[in-house]
Design goal:
Order of helices and strands: EHEHEHEHEEHEEEHEEHEHHHHHHH
Number of helices: 14
Oligomer: single chain
CATH superfamily of the largest domain: NAD(P)-binding Rossmann-like Domain
CATH class of the largest domain: Alpha Beta
Number of strands: 12
Number of domains: 2
Shape: globular
Helix content: 40-55%
Structural class: alpha/beta
Strand content: 5-15%
């Protein structure tokens, strides 16, 4: 049994999917089992009896970390130490994900695992502190440092570029920071290789896409491929610029190209070229987003209809249509994260599958009541009389608010 800690994040979701596809039994936790509470970790481990732990949890807000040092170190150092202590106690291997930010960016050659660390910001310092705790506490560990990570299940540079390229006529992108983009699927490939190989060559490993580029060169490739498959429909002009033109609270490494020789040698792992990976990623993303956008287009149509029905004082049909708008938006989220949604109409059930806030649970129950009764009750007129302008104005306002919350769960919307 593999325990994925941080299974709701961009990498954690990809790891869960990869293990499932490889028929490797796994379980996952996120914030419901706090890594800052050793007893909570121990209690969960007692129930699932893991053979491995994969830690995908992290404080990753690079710039916010400069003002939230305590929070960054709590998660990236103290929380990691708690996980390492548990793995040591259970005598099982720990796979932990780290970052190129542990380096200062002054190198001009690919960075090996033995290169001296020297983080320049709080985020990098907190991640390095977590690494050091693992090495001290847990002998059976694999620390995988990666860089420029992107994937389907969370905000990242690729999504940001696709959004901006569709919105702006011109876009400046930094051209003096060098590294290599990494697809989450390439990381999960290595994780599965480590688990299945029985090669217990513990230690620190580097993995990023093969090859080298700047952020500008990465953006240019995203634009080229996005135009080819229809994800980008504008004629946005890309221009290179310096880091000085985009100052950030946390300094970015000017050079963070990671050497992959150790992982190739010890695990015979074939590292894909970064251009191949981004092409595959966008090819996979394209049909997913088309299905998601179809759900959202239908949801938009329903909410427009609901507003029209409200003006016409057809309140029962308005509430019915509000329910349909929310149902389709929730199914868009499920489509994005899990694949084809179930053929059910219950908003509360769908919201749980979509991971939407429980704050709307009671409201969803109310809408479902009118939806079910209006479809299956013979006494529709009587049900309609329980609604009035004030109550239906509330339903419309609350539906609009809930829709914003639901759609925000999808990192990229191209409609």
């Amino acid at each position: 049994m593999i325990w994925i800690i941080g299974d709701k994040g961009m990498l954690g979701r990809e790891v869960s999917k990869a293990l499932q596809e490889a028929d490797i039994p796994s379980t996952g936790t996120d914030r419901e089992v706090s890594i800052l509470e050793p007893e909570a970790l121990r209690a969960y481990a007692k129930g699932c009896k893991p053979d491995w732990i994969i830690n995908c949890s992290a404080y990753t807000a690079v710039d916010k970390a400069e003002d939230e040092k305590e929070a960054a170190f709590a998660i990236n150092k103290t929380g990691v130490a708690n996980i390492a202590a548990l793995a040591s106690e259970l005598d099982i291997p720990l796979i932990h994900i780290s970052t190129d930010y542990v380096f200062d960016g002054s190198s001009s050659e690919p960075l090996t695992e033995e290169a001296p660390a020297g983080p320049t910001g709080v985020y990098g310092a907190s991640k390095l502190a977590g690494e050091e705790k693992i090495r001290k506490i847990c002998s059976k560990h694999f620390i995988i440092r990666t860089a420029w990570l992107y994937g389907q299940y969370g905000p990242n540079f690729v999504y940001t570029m696709l959004k901006l390229m569709n919105k702006l006529d011109t876009l400046k992108v930094v051209d003096d920071q060098h590294g290599s983009p990494t697809w989450t699927k390439d990381i999960t490939g290595l994780i599965c290789t480590i688990i299945e190989s029985d090669n217990m060559t513990y230690g620190t490993y580097h993995l990023s896409g093969e090859g080298e580029c700047t952020w500008f060169e990465f953006a240019r490739e995203i634009f080229r491929l996005g135009r080819e498959n229809g994800l980008i429909t504008s004629d946005c002009t890309l221009n290179p610029c310096s880091s000085e033109e985009f100052p950030t609270p946390a300094k970015r490494p000017a050079y963070s190209l990671l050497s992959k020789e150790k992982v190739k040698r010890n695990f015979q792992y074939s590292v894909p070229d970064w251009k191949e990976s981004i092409e595959q990623f966008l090819d996979i993303l394209d049909p997913v987003l088309r299905k998601v956008n179809n759900w959202l287009i239908l949801s938009d149509s329903d909410i427009d209809t609901a507003k029209y029905l409200f003006k016409g004082k057809k309140y029962l049909y308005q509430v019915f249509t509000c329910q349909q708008a929310l149902e389709k938006a929730l199914k868009a989220v499920i489509e994005f994260y899990q694949g084809p949604p179930p053929r059910i109409h219950n908003l509360k059930q769908l919201s749980r599958l979509a991971g939407v806030s429980e704050n709307y649970a009671d409201f969803f129950v109310d809408l479902d009541y009118y939806y079910i009764r209006s479809r299956y009750s013979l006494d529709i007129q009587k049900i309609g009389k329980t609604l009035n302008q004030e109550r239906c104005a509330f339903f419309l306002e609350k539906t609009t608010e809930a829709l914003e919350c639901i759609i925000s769960r999808i990192p990229l919307i191209t409609q």
